Amino acid sequence: MGMSRFARWTAGAAAAALLVAGCSGGSPDDEPTSLTSQKLDWGRCKATGGSPAPSSDWQCATLKAPLDWAKPDGETIDLALIRAKARGGKRVGSLLFNFGGPGGSGMSMMPSFAPTVSQLRERYDLVSWDPRGVGASEGVRCRGDKEIQAAEAAVDATPDTPAEETAYLKDAADFGTGCAKDAGKLLGHVSTTDTARDMDLMRQVLGDRKTHYFGISYGTELGGVYAHLFPKNVGRMVLDAVVDPTAGTVGHAENQTRGFQRALNAYLVSTGQDPEQGSRKIADLLKRIDAEPLPTSSPGRKLTQTLALTGIILPLYSEDSWPTLTSALESAEQGDGSELLALADGYNERGASGRYGTGSHSQRVISCLDDRQRPTVEETKKLLPRFERISPVFGDFMGWDTAGWCHDWPVPGQHDTPEVSAPGAAPILVVGTTGDPATPYEGARKMADELGRGVGVMLTWKGEGHGAYGSGSDCVDSTVNAYLLNGTVPKDGKVCS
Predict the structure, then answer these.
(1) Active site residues
(2) What is the pTM of this model?
(3) What pLDDT score was predicted for residue 49?
(4) Contact assessment for residue 450 and residue 421, using Cβ atoms and an 8 Å cutoff
(5) What is the pLDDT of residues 63-92, one digit of tens each?
(6) Strand partners, 433
(7) What is the mean pLDDT of residues 404-426?
């Protein structure tokens, strides 16, 4: 999952500047022994968040971390961890995984991702966790299921009239109020910097001298922030589907608008369509849906323009899903919004019972604490023509999202862009995919450059989709495996096609 409501970094990331300025309190090396010496009570995992309990191969435990890292001896919160122990005899250590979001649950994602990284388990304990504010780790729920469904039906995320604009901004402010009510004091302590500090505490409690890490999407920004704070503690680190650390709020929205349009163009070419004509046809469909939402097979629910956009976005994450998009668009053209609604429900974590997941809630509380920039409605309106030139399909939504996502948020953001420079760190493998829709390829090169000479090592995959490892490239997989398993650092600039 990046900077817009469609794809906050799963996308698909941000926050060290405040720490550098001395405002977050405490040195990165002053954790009290009451925290660093705690013993984890690993046991059988339980079902969480509607997901069944993983097999007995997996163990779960609870880590105590400070609520406020400026007061490490103060109040604590619980962080939920999951692991599968290494199978082989030559164990390197723990390999931490963050799957992005922000707001992705490692507790639910790690077991499903394990087959993809099965070779890595020969030498590593596979470890993930729900970051603070997520899922089983003091997760936040900002509004109830009925309220979410009502907002989906009533709120236009690309407002065309003053009344729609007022409703859009009121909904955004109400969401923030709900987050503050549910999260309480935690709302100001879920930043990427806080989670990076948690990661180093994990390293110590897990008994590792170095932090070995695999970050995907937003997890790449978390990895970069960690490397900046703890360069000497970096072991073997892979950043895949990379967030551009130099982009601010508007820059990220532009990047994603460009990335999703590129992916849509590639999809249209694959179906024999001209990208410009095909995009215009989809944009026209969305305008018709905006004027008259489509009926669906889901009782009492119609397909709105915003839900239709969300349904189009989801299958662009993976080339394997493009046929699903074709079917859904054809049905919508014929007046049936059921398939696009089902895709949107998948993205929005809506189950068959009408229960919604809270990933998007966690996503928002983390990103709005990280991001200081708050474009006004007036500033956004001036930007809209630029967004629409980038993409006639996604531009309007992505542009409006810069004003709405953190509108009237209860706590201030921490920085404009995160600090990820990591002089003195071990080489970090940065993997970029040329057709990545959510975290466009250019961000990977910028991350490698920001990490610093001799630290950021660039690997390019000429492919489609969000994330390269495990996506069908033997070249990518073997390069990453050689680096993680044997410490073999590839030549900077290696290309896999």
Answers:
(1) 217, 436, 466
(2) 0.94
(3) 64
(4) yes
(5) 999 999 999 999 999 999 999 999 988 999
(6) 461
(7) 97
Tokens describing residue 448? 């490698």
Confirm if 157 and 306 have CB atoms less than 8 A apart: yes
HEC string for the chain: CCCCCCCCCCCCCCCCHHHHCCCCCCCCCCCCHHHHCCCCCCEECCCECCECCCCCCCEEEEEEEECCCCCCCCCEEEEEEEEECCCCCCCCEEEEEECCCCCCCHHHHHHHHHHHHHHHHHCEEEEEECCCCECCECCCCCCCHHHHHHHHHHCCCCCCCHHHHHHHHHHHHHHHHHHHHHHHHHHHCCCHHHHHHHHHHHHHHHCCCCEEEEEECHHHHHHHHHHHHCHHHEEEEEEECCCCCCCCHHHHHHHHHHHHHHHHHHHHHHCCCCHHHHHHHHHHHHHHHHHCCEECCCCCCEECHHHHHHHHHHHHCCHHHHHHHHHHHHHHHCCCCHHHHHHHHHHCCECCCCCECCHHHHHHHHHHHHECCCCCHHHHHHHHHHHHHHCCCCHHHHHHHHHHCCCCCCCCCCECCCCCCCCCCCCEEEEEEEECCCCCCHHHHHHHHHHCCCCEEEEEEEEECCCCCCCCCHHHHHHHHHHHHHCCCCCCCEEEC
User: Residue 244 above 70 pLDDT?
Assistant: yes
What residue has token string 């920004």?
A: 221
At 115-161, the pLDDT tens digits run 999 999 999 999 999 999 999 999 999 999 999 999 999 999 999 99
Task: Read off the amino acid at residue 34.
Answer: S
Rounded to 5°, the CA angle 221-455-437 comes to: 40
Give the pLDDT confidence score for residue 52 in this predicted structure. 79
pLDDT of 23: 34
What was the pLDDT predicted at 28? 56
* pLDDT of 164 over the 70 cut: yes
